[in-house]
Amino acid sequence: MATNSSSSSSSSSSSANKSGGDGIRPLPMEQAMQFIDFKLECVKPNLLEGRFVVSELICQPFPVLHPGICAMIAESLASSGAHIACGFQRVAGIELNINHLRAAPVGTEV
């Protein structure tokens, strides 16, 4: 799952610690993202990307990923991307619109 930080984004009030080298600060993972074992793989000024495996804990009563989890991930990545793109200032978005193209059953890497 990835988001481009130049798209509509949301609020972020988390602070990040400064890292060396590229000037990008590492992003603290929110508790919800830790709960689903989301692994952030790429952090760039215009791209945040990561993966997780669908578990039974985050499924609907059927064995497929709950769509609210997708919304939470999109919101978290967009907020973090906007935070980076705005020079680590506090930002706020106004809308989140998600379309689900197919089900993600338990065990699927997303």
* Spans where pLDDT lies below 50 across 5 or more residues: 3-21
Strand order of the largest sheet: 1-3-2
Q: Give the radius of gyration.
A: 14 Å
User: What is the element string, with H for helices and E for strands?
Assistant: EHEEH
Overall average residue pLDDT: 79
Strand elements, count: 3
Report the major sheet.
3 strands, antiparallel
Cα distance spanning the termini: 6 Å
Helical region count?
2
Helical content, roughly?
A: 10-25%
The shape is: globular
Strand content: 5-15%
What does this structure look like?
The chain is α+β, with helices and mostly antiparallel strands. The chain is built from 2 helices and 3 strands. The chain has helices at residues 31-35, 67-85, and strands at 2-3, 39-44, 47-51. It has a 3-stranded antiparallel sheet. A hairpin with a 2-residue loop joins β2 and β3 (47-51). The termini are close together.
Question: What key phrases describe this protein's structure?
Answer:
2 helices; 110 residues; alpha+beta; 3-stranded antiparallel sheet; disordered N terminus; single chain
